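Escalated from tier 1: oxidized coenzyme A holo job.
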Amino acid sequence: MADVKDILVPDIGDFEGVEVIEIMVSPGDTISVEDPLVSLESDKAAMEIPSPDAGTVKEIKVSIGDKVSQGDLLVTLEVSVTEAAPVAEATADEPAQPAPAPAAAPEKPAAPAPAPAPVSSHRPPPVAPTPIDEVGFRKAYASPSVRKFARELGADLGQITGSGNKGRILKEDIKTFVKKALTSGHVGGLGVAPMPEIDFSQFGDIETQPLTKINKLTGQFLHRNWVTVPHVTQFDEADITELEKFRKQLNAEHKNEGIRVTVLAFLMKALVSALKEYPRFNSSLDATGENLVLKKYIHIGVAVDTPDGLVVPVIRDCDRKSLIELASELIEASIKARDKKLSPADMSGGCISISSLGGIGGTAFTPIVNAPEVAILGVSRAQMKPVYIDGEFVPRLILPLSLSYDHRVIDGADGARFTSFLNKVLSDTRRLLL
Ligand code: CAO
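Tier 2 regenerated the structure:
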């Protein structure tokens, strides 16, 4: 059995003639106890009036702009007699206090606003815990239910520009803010402030160039890997004096075949041996992060610098290829990369990557792991250095190595063992046969 009930303005303290600024329900809406009906605003505070009963809204008796006081009729509600519930008490989730008006916050708080609106269970997941500036949050101009909504999503009201009357923040403004934060990746749980928008032309002449597609894609992957993989970089130096002699000899022998063996081909060979010795480096964490997937194949990715940006073609089954085969596949892959002919398949399935800046310069760097791989070998320019051997300094060709690894999978000791092993095989290439 249904009964029609008048819902009146409750006790709102000393306020008289308070303006209706928002009507949150429409005739025919089914509402629950405590659902907000209208928002009222005095020159000092905004407050929401919740429904004391559950039922179906029959008629709205006020319009936006009307001035109301305690006892005025707001809404008529069809309530089922058995469903009628007592007026709800304020809940502790969000302090039931009025939102400050945009001008001056009241010195003495106005009468407490009624209980906040209940929360729908179909809300989007909260934005990860970006710290909220409580002072800014309190000062923001928003109604209690909007404040509660912002709290649930972890949105900092102080950072949101309101699109409502007099700059009041609406639920829509929060949704827009959260969407922007999620898509830009600027909030994403890192607890960092969004990048400010700066007009650089105020400081001097500028030119804006759009990023290439490759720049954008690699940027996304690098950013994800940089923030999700706990990186450690192990530096080391390998004596490649003998390797270099051998390399020159090989290149002289294969001169007429157009094959050029670079240090990189030797590094791939050395990595094959090292991965066999330390199989944990040839693994990936599965999507749950609870299991390690160990790979029985050895595919190596090689970072190639192209005019459009960085790409990483993968040389497959390196453990089954000779040094000369690896060298010629490397040449093919870098030509394909620079001619933009690499397919997604050519760039997938890598077990570990090499980033060689040796042809350019530098003494060391910290490469970013190409996740879900767990390690990447950075290589800088080899230099002749004096090395103290058997009581005297002798000139040796020293190759700097920078191995970055995922510390969730690889311990520091293994990182150092891995580069020591690489040094051993690179300084004595006979060991590559073992
Ligand atoms: N030390 C000293 N000399 C080196 C060297 C090293 N570590 N590595 C290469 N060189 C030499 C080569 O021997 C070659 O000399 P020669 O012509 O006398 O033989 C010269 O430098 C140029 O080598 P290269 O770069 O053409 O060939 P490569 O096989 O070493 O590298 C490739 C190929 C595709 C990896 C490279 O051209 C490239 O693109 N490197 C950049 C990778 C990159 O951008 N990494 C950063 C990723 S993170 O942003």
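The pocket of oxidized coenzyme A is lined by residues 262-264, 302-305, 310, 330, 334, 355-359, 367, 379, 381-382, 399 (CB under 6 Å).
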